[in-house]
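does this look right to u?? zinc ion version
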Amino acid sequence: MTAATENRTVRRNGPGTKRADWNNWSPLAFEEMDSALNIQQYIQQTIKANPADVATILTPPLDQDEGVWKYEHLRQFCIELNGLALLLQRECIPETCQQMTATEQWIFLCAAHKNPNECPAIDYTRHTLDGAATLLNSNKYFPSRVNIKEISISKLGSVARRVYRIFSHAFFHHRKLFDEFENETHLCKRFTTYVSKYNLMQQEHLIVPILPNQQQQQQTTVQ
Amino acid sequence: MEDASQLSNSQNDKAKDETTRPQYTMSGILHFIQHEWTKNELDRTRWEAERAEMQARIAFLQGERKGQENLKQDLVRRIKMLEFCLKQERAKNYRLTHNGEEPPSLEESPNENSAPSENSHLTADLDAYINDAGEAGGSFRQGRLLLKRYLEEIGYSEHIMDVRSFRVKNLLGLLPQADLPSSERLNGRKEKSDSNYSDSDDGHDDAALDADASKAFEEFDFLNNMDAKEKGSDDDWAGKGASFEKLIKQYKDDPKVKRRSRTSTEESEEKTSNDVQKNLETDVPPGIRSAIDAAAQEELPVRRQGRRSANFGYGNGNELDVALGMQDNDNMDIKDEFKDEDDDPNAQQVKWNIKVTLRSHLDSIRAMQFHPVEPVLFTASEDGLIKLWNLDQKKDEKHNSGGTELEPVYTFRGHKGPVLCLVLSPTGDHLYTGGIDGNICCFNVPSSNGDPFDSYDPRVLTETLTGHTDAIWSVAYHSSNSRLVSASSDSTVRLWEPGNGEPLIRTIGAPKSGILPTSVDFVSTETSHLLAAYTNCYAQIIDIDTGSTVMVFDFGAVTGSPTMNKIVSHPTMPLTLIGGEDRTIRYFDNTNGSIIHEAIAHVEGVSSLAIDPNGLYLLSGSHDGSIRMWNMEKRSCLQEISAHRKKNDSAVTSVAFHPSRSLIGSAGADSLAKVYVSGSN
Ligand SMILES: [Zn+2]
Ligand SMILES: [Zn+2]
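got this back:
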């Protein structure tokens, strides 16, 4: 092998990589990411750098196509939400959470079934995440990760709306678990910022008071 | 520039309500162009992959077409032959009724004794024979032409049959192969014995292939017997056939023309196969050699036979041409076809074509394995999930997924963060997965026909084996005592017994400080031995009963200290294969730890290896994005498929053979898994 190739940083988590060294390579400028999955790489790189820096994570590279940007972020949310689902598997059981609820105002029906079903919370969580993975991989709506069809963008909103209920259920029913997860990942904060920034959800549906302005709002309503 | 500004205009129109960005920055335009270029490049690679697939398909269909045309021609010629026969009978009748006018050589009485006298005449003088033909009229000449074609035809169709059976054998590699050549032979004979000329064929075969003389003589005898039974009323034709045969033999005995018909291709082919044999004899230790020889004996006769029959058809034409004083004419095109088929290495190879792309994971897939029996696949991904796929799944209308694509039947959740490896129990009932979280999850495998949106059953995850303090990169299952081995970047290899109260049985540290285990597999020929590969170009055999090193593989001189990514045991031989980050695949002899063979196999690091259940084919996957199918015996590459796109510098991460079906799979950093079927499906 030539010296040039050897000197090049190989960004690869090969077998034997320690957990601490996972994705632990010098960051690459977005312009230099020449793979087709550069947006996913870029998003994961900025998260790795600092998961709490939501603003930076959600700042697209210059002139980035917004559809792909939104799409890849939603993929990333679904990946990380698997972590929350794993935690919920521990204590969110049908005996205690017979329905998918957050506040008592709504019971959410699971849309993974042909006829929306009143699944227990843990099943709602699993079904919704599995359904989201299927939809985001659908050849019909998202045949390419480089180019998102305009008509498919609307699907992002419905996926976002459904997976958000997992946050809200965890927040209102498994608060300790939610905090444990949120402190590590800042995922709900990032998600709320994301759907607000791209108008994927209506503000009144964002019921987990995670952003400073939401907390203020809640306080004012309480008062 | 105009184009660029237009494009950025339109972009801006879209984004106008969002923000007011500088409209035409140079970097913006450049980036746009770069972006477009990347897109085009991507499309191009995809199109190229599709093109390659289509070409393989076309080649296969063309082969099919040739076979069909050939069959048609064969039937037409048979009809013509019967017509010719009838004409001959009429001519004979005429001659008998006009006795004296005809030369004695063509005077044929209906009884069998006439044949020898005719033979003696024919063998005496070639010219006389041709004159006879001239006197007998154009129909006789035409008949010989037909005969010649027909003989070629037999060779050709036999060749086609060989190609097919070879292909089938190749792709199956799963069927008892020893049967194939013999059954094929029988088919060939059947076809030959359908014809009255068969004895002349085989006589020719005998003479041309003196190496196989004795075997061919047996065939000859056998066919003569068969023919004798079948002759009946066609006696005179049989007689003519015999005379041809004598004529050909005489011709071949002529030193000037002897062997001229043997083409150089056959000689070189035989030479290479001899070389291969020789290499095997010198390179391979005795234990392995016998096994390889056994494999080779299954393999080679078919190839040789195919080669021989092609040549046979070829030579037949040539020699008959000369013997019968004919020039090459309209048969040229057939010969060209022979040649093409011979020269084109693809014609005799199995081609794997993509059957289905499995899209459901959201991040790089790290590992895949097929169910031992069912058309079922398991994939483990960095998205933290393991998915079960039923490749025969009927589209279920119950689900609101909006697509017609294959969806996973079950999704396993048990790991926090990426899942890096998985292994199934030999029955396919239990699944063991290792993750970056340092845990091993033991799952009961749910029904592959279940409802993907069934309610959660916590009993699916039966146990979590904790103890490793860092990522688990490889798990292997011991088929006979239900034990599990794991390799972790905490530098240890651990032996577990799931279901036991104290599942951890043994911890085996790294043989040297600073090296980490990467991959483990059990030795197929010695069940208490474990293969372990490490970073820093190290691999060894460990006795799992004692935890001690049995053998350290000798890598010889290696530049740098590349990580050995994947270690696999040959299914039947004491042979170990290791794929390395240095792009190399190495074959080791377990008996002495020495390298049998090493070769750079890919453009970038080899990430994964899989061997078919019979140990004849090797599948390798690499970060260059391709998977390659290898002939293990010849170590030649049979096919390359560009399979997966890169994420960072990773591409193909895992490859697999189905243990009992003609399916292979690949998985990659692009979150996709692909399943391929062999070309004939
Ligand atoms: Zn719950
Ligand atoms: Zn449901």
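The mean pLDDT of chain B is 72. idk if thats expected tbh
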